[in-house]
Design a protein that fits this description.
single chain, alpha/beta, Arc Repressor Mutant, subunit A, Rossmann fold, 2 domains, eight-stranded mixed sheet, three-stranded antiparallel sheet, 16 helices, 11 strands, about 45% helix, about 15% strand, binds S-adenosylmethionine
Length: about 350
């Protein structure tokens, strides 16, 4: 048997070690994202979920994916990282010789038959080269006037490029729809008062109607419509009672009791947001007459400060800066655009994951 000796440990000064490890961890952050992408791509969450015991050993996983025998040790390395990141866990009580992997709350969200259709389409989109590649242009972009990293990479803005690339358009809409279903199922259950007393709600920039359908199902007496760009019309389901209106929110929004803007204003700069909000103001009646605009967005460092939320908010902000002219806004920045669009009153309710609900009145 080979003998093992441990030589004297030469410890780096703790400050240097900590600083270097911190730097390495940030540098390797993309490896975490890509390991997650790989697990989704080869269907690991669904395989574990659909197995009878809701757990799987490495050899069972290798046989089910399937992968060549020579790749088994590499699958182990992938799973070791993902267990460390909390995407999967090892079942302490399996009682089997070979350890079994189980799902964690994070990977349960990545199964296809999750209650809310899961978040796979959103993860796929965020980790798609079309959205990742523009980040390589940040350094050039920040030193020059105009354009966006996305435009430097793809030659046009997101909506124009999506209009020309049906696959990207489809993936983007599916990503938004899965995010909408997850958030909106929670909101209709826990904050139904948001919709009480309304007869007509227009989901402006409502995509393929994920939010609209969830609201219409929860409140059958509420007429819910979606206004979005023409390229969304083909993918919009025709027969589910939610009407699609082709329109441009920068030009005109039809009259309605209330407007929903979910994940819209974060795509635009302040001047553009004020223009959209002024059109909203023209479309909805005053507070006394029951009108309102419902915004679902991040309020950076909202009352529920949580270090993990803050990190996600800042990361999403830099991604928005890469893809669009938009921002993740702090409350004082929201207040400014509301004031510039001549809205008099707003109420922020945090606590919907990283998102808050803002009710806006004039
Ligand atoms: C980030 S997505 C949000 C979709 C949806 N609200 C959600 O949260 O799932 C932005 C949406 O705004 C739409 N959009 C972009 N420009 C628009 C315009 N000028 N008028 C109406 N909709 C627009 C896009 O087509 C897209 O569906």
């Amino acid at each position: 048997m080979a003998a093992m000796t441990i030589s004297k440990v030469h410890e780096m000064p703790s400050g240097l070690s900590k600083a270097h490890t911190n730097l390495l961890s940030i540098q390797f952050g993309y490896v975490n994202s890509m390991a997650l992408r790989c697990a989704i791509q080869i269907g690991i969450p669904d395989l574990i979920h659909s197995n009878d015991s809701s757990s799987m050993s490495l050899s069972e996983l290798a046989a089910s994916i399937p992968i060549p025998e020579t790749k088994s040790p590499h699958l182990y390395r992938l799973m070791r990282l993902l267990v460390h990141l909390g995407i999967f866990a090892l079942d302490e009580n399996s009682g089997t010789a070979e350890p079994k992997y189980i799902l964690t709350p994070a990977s349960k969200l990545l199964t296809k038959n999750h209650d809310n259709k899961g978040v796979i389409p959103f993860s796929k989109m965020v980790l798609d080269p079309a959205l990742v590649n523009p980040l390589f242009h940040l350094g050039d972009w920040i030193k020059m006037e105009g354009s966006l990293p996305f435009e430097l990479c793809h030659g046009g803005n997101m909506w124009a490029v999506a209009a020309q690339k049906p696959d990207l358009n489809k993936d983007f809409n599916a990503a938004m729809e899965s995010d909408s279903q997850l958030l909106m199922s929670f909101i209709v259950k826990h904050s139904p008062q948001l919709f009480h007393g309304l007869k007509l709600l227009i989901d402006v920039g409502g995509g393929t109607g994920g939010c609209a359908r969830t609201i219409a199902k929860a409140f059958p007496d509420l007429n819910v419509k979606v206004l979005d760009l023409p390229q969304l019309a083909a993918d919009f389901p025709k027969d589910d009672g939610v009407q699609f209106i082709v329109g441009d929110m920068f030009k005109h929004i039809p009259s309605t009791d209330a407007i929903l803007l979910k994940n819209i204003l974060h795509d635009w700069n302040d001047e553009e947001c004020v223009q959209i909000l002024k059109n909203c103001k023209k479309a909805v009646p005053s507070k006394e007459e029951g009108g309102k605009v419902i915004i679902m967005e991040v309020v950076v460092n909202s009352q529920l400060k949580d270090p993990e939320h803050t990190q996600v908010e800042y990361e999403a902000d830099v991604l928005l800066m890469t893809l669009t002219s938009g921002w993740q806004r702090e409350e004082k920045e929201w207040r400014k655009i509301f004031k510039d669009a001549a809205f008099e009153e707003y109420k922020i309710t945090p606590g919907f994951g990283v998102r808050s609900v803002i009710e806006l009145y004039h």
